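Cross-check.
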Amino acid sequence: MINRKMKLKEFLTNEEYEGVIQNAIQYSDISLPVWYLEITGKCLCELSKFDLIRCIRQDVFKDLATFEIIERIDEQNTSFYADIDSMEMMEKLASISPEMLLAHKSRLDRMIENVEKNNLIDFADIWMFDEQKETFQDYINIIKK
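Predicted model, tokenized:
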């Protein structure tokens, strides 16, 4: 089990962390290296939804971000993690390696079962278009496999 209260920098070696600091100093006018340094001072539970999505997009702390997304979805007992972000969250989860998804199989199975058994996709009020609902279902199907 991952300690969600540990600062992200504790998951890096000293050399990796020093590299993050040097990049942030050298490229202080670019938001990505500065953001990366900022999140290393946070614990998983302190990261925003945007931070978690960005970690996966940027391939930094990807496994930790995936773990945290699954934790939050499970804690809230819903697959609709955030109104605006739920589609991208599911898209990002669907893009994670099968090995990583297998590590969280029981939780993911429980979440998907909850969505399907209670017909939550049809009852959600976050869809602007029917295509979004279909796309969300496609992501669930990918995760299920």
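The chain is about 65% helix and 0% strand. The longest helix spans residues 62-76. Passed to J.P. for a second look.
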